[in-house]
Amino acid sequence: MIMKQDEYQAAQAFDPLDMQNYRIEKLPKREKTGFEKWLAIIGPILAVLSFILFAFVIKLPFLQDIDSLQLVSEEAKKAYEKLGPVAFTRTNEMMLAIFIASIILWITEAIPNYLTSLILIVTLVLTGVLSEKTAYAQLGHPVMWLNIMSFVLASMLVATGVAKRFALWFILRFGKNAGTIFLSFIVINVVLSAFISATTAKAAILLPIFMVIAAIYGAHGGSSRNNFGRSIVLQNLMYINIGASGFLTGSGANLLAAALIAGATGSAVFFSDWLFAMFPIMIGLLLIGYLLAMKVFFPLSPGERLPQIEGGMARLRQEYEKLGKLNRQEVKSVIIFLLILGFWSTDRLHGISPTAVAFVGGIVALLPRIGIVKWNDVDIPWHLMLFSAGAYTLGSGFSATDLPSIGVNAFFDHLGISNHTPFWVLYLILTGVMIFSALIFQSKTMRAMIFIPIAIGVASRFGFSILSLALPVAFMIEHVYVLPFNSKPAALLYETDQYSLTDTFRFGFTVMVIAWLINIVAGETWFRVLGITPNGVFGLF
To answer: Which of 334, 234, 226, 364 is nearest to 292 (CA)?
Structure first.
């Protein structure tokens, strides 16, 4: 009886319209399921056994005759000349063993992902796959610095209230009913995607706002789930990730993919190039996702279209009015972001990298007296940075050993596939593997590190332009919204308890398949016009 009284008091104390109740640190931690607990127990055992088997026991034929295969990576060619075929074969065996063991630990989440990355880095050093200088230097990878500076700039938006002000203003101005509220979040996410390179930061900014709106429409999660709650959270999850696909700077994984392609082709992929190719496709996908959610998967009943809490939108207006008039600091932060976006979008003209532009923006934001935020106000998730460093080090190991291209060549040789295989067969396979790999892998960075080099290797083997296969594969990076472990925003929003695994899989997988089909159609049409795929018209790339 006492417990029931406590629960009643807690429920009475909880204000569903208070945005502070939906901050990340206040979300309840989801208990692992029995299957997840079992995976966590067996993960380390499988990882150790896999490492031993592939490093010392199993001898794969295609790694034993490595001197007969064509190497793509310049680092691999130098390593082969330095080590000779026997030692180079041994290095590739170690690389494969480390990769498989790391994948098992990442997927099973037996230990924290950042710890798996640290183990991976030092193992690559101890086994001689990479030198200490190369392995440890990945923490200073340009994309790492872009991520760090992006969190500085995102913290500036949060500290000044600009992001919250914009989102609230847009909702109050255009979110007149349930349908237009969802459309408003499309616009909000696209705008934030242009400025913020961290999808987790976007999720953290928007979560309190759409959770309050969910409460206004009677969606409280758990046993009180309704289609409004399912739709607003899952649509935002999709918008956050797909929105990033329209911009080269939408995420660090996009930039990493572009860097890998530039390294293989000798020419840069510019912000404007990526924008021209992917922005219209991104907008189309967001609208398709909106229609699928509203008309097919989570249609709103007449009752769900009406606010359930009297004066709910007035509460949002109060939150907006609390921000007061636009102050000097907010104006400065808007100017900084507009300048950053301007330099990003004109990189073809001045040649300054997106990382360098973000660097300058971060420095200005932190400058004493002139700047906007102090270092203690900056929220950088260092565990994510360490996790990313491990993925970059893994990619460096792939480059040094050329394992992806060696594996690709062996795979096609084993199947007896002719070097005259049509381009579109390879296009379908590579883009399909990239997008559906998101169902298994947790890191966009890791997928970019694995599948972009594979696309480069396939293009080189079959004599096609590297850009024609590698760039469409890169365009598939951001589709990480199907299952909770597919991305950090997916894991974060699953904690809201507004939807089930079945809900997110049905909706997310359908959008994913449609995204792949659109990519295929674009390969035959829009990408041809831009000169990405063969028989291009304009030759912009």
So the answer is: 234
List all residues 6 or more positions away from 455 whose beta carbon is below 8 Å from its beta carbon. Answer: 430, 434, 466, 469, 470, 473
Categorize the per-residue pLDDT at 538 as very low, low, confident or very high, splitting at 50, 70 and 90.
Answer: very low
Residue 40 identity: A
pLDDT tens-digit map of 272-326: 889 999 999 999 999 999 999 999 999 988 877 777 666 667 777 887 788 788 8
What is the model's pTM? 0.77
> Which token pair is 278?
């992917």
- Average pLDDT value for residue range 259-281: 85
User: From CA 457, how far away is CA 472, in angstroms rounded?
Assistant: 15
Structure tokens, 468: 């024609």
> Which ranges of 61-131 would DSSP assign to H, the alpha helix?
61-64, 74-108, 113-126
The verdict on residue 20 lying in a domain is: no
> For 463, which DSSP code?
T
C-beta neighbour count of 517 within 10 angstroms: 10
Indicate whether 458 belongs to any domain. yes
One-letter amino acid at 412 equals F
Q: What is the pLDDT of residue 495?
A: 79
Q: What pLDDT sits at residue 24?
A: 53
| Structural domains in the chain (count) | 1
Whether 14 is in a domain gets the answer no
Short-list 19, 484, 18, 11, CA closest to 224: 11
Find the length of the chain.
541
